[in-house]
Design goal:
Layout lengths: L1 E4 L4 H13 L4 E4 L20 E3 L5 E2 L2 H9 L12 H28 L9 H22 L12 H16 L10 H11 L2 H4 L8
Helix pairs in contact: 1-2, 1-5, 3-4, 3-5, 5-6
The protein binds glutathione.
Glutathione (GSH) binds next to helix 3.
């Protein structure tokens, strides 16, 4: 199978973490989604990364669909529980991680605009509130547990971990650890896993 993506995309990293956890071999095609010559749109009409192309040519998107597909393949821990209520709870964690990451991407992209063309402060506050509220819920739901759901490693931990990793990468001045000690412990625990360390976003030069 082929994965289209870039090292800077948090959603691509999420998929790469799952591929590593499941021990699945793949070709990593580094490609942006919406450059004029991008190879992505023929596979994904939405022109977004990650896009996964299976060996028979069928494409999958977006990251929640891809990780659910991958969880059924390969070895490694089962990341999405089979039981309906448990599955929905893990998917809720995934939605929280994805939503925090979306807001972080939005802020990061907007900062690339010249200062006089940026959106108003109220827009930044709205994105920041999504991040703050999302982290507060994760912190509360994680509590004293080692893992986000049911005391075992699941996609919920990957969702929280890749969102926190992207926060550190994209908004390095945002200090979230002191207010969220349980998440800080989780991030440290996850950083020690090969799936996280081998896919980490490059540090800014
Ligand atoms: N919900 C999607 C988000 C994917 C996404 O927004 N990817 C960005 C890169 S980080 C992208 O492809 N942007 C190009 C575009 O929107 O044109 C997922 O989880 O896969």
């Amino acid at each position: 199978m082929k994965l289209f993506g870039t090292p800077g995309s948090p959603f691509v990293r999420k998929v790469r973490i799952v591929l590593a956890e499941k021990g699945i071999a793949y070709d990593y095609i580094v490609a942006r989604a919406s450059t004029p010559d991008s190879p992505v749109p023929p596979h994904n009409p939405l022109a977004k990364i990650p896009t996964l192309v299976r060996d028979d040519g069928r494409a999958l998107y977006d990251s929640p669909v891809i990780v659910e597909y991958l969880d059924a393949l390969g070895s490694g821990p089962q990341l999405i529980p089979g039981d309906f209520e448990a599955r929905i709870e893990v998917k809720r964690w995934e939605a929280l991680g994805d939503g925090i990451t979306e807001a972080t991407v939005n802020i990061n992209h907007e900062y690339r605009e010249p200062a006089d063309r940026r959106r108003p402060p109220a827009w930044f506050e709205k994105q920041q509130h999504k991040i703050d509220r999302g982290l507060a819920v994760m912190e509360k739901d994680l509590g004293a547990s080692d893992w986000c759901f049911d005391g075992r490693y699941t996609l919920a931990d990957i969702a929280a971990g890749y969102a926190l990793g992207y926060l550190d990468h994209a908004l390095p001045d945002y200090e979230w650890r002191s207010k969220h000690p349980a998440l800080a412990r989780l991030a440290a625990r996850l950083a020690a896993r090969a799936s996280f360390s081998t896919t980490a976003h490059a540090k800014a030069a």
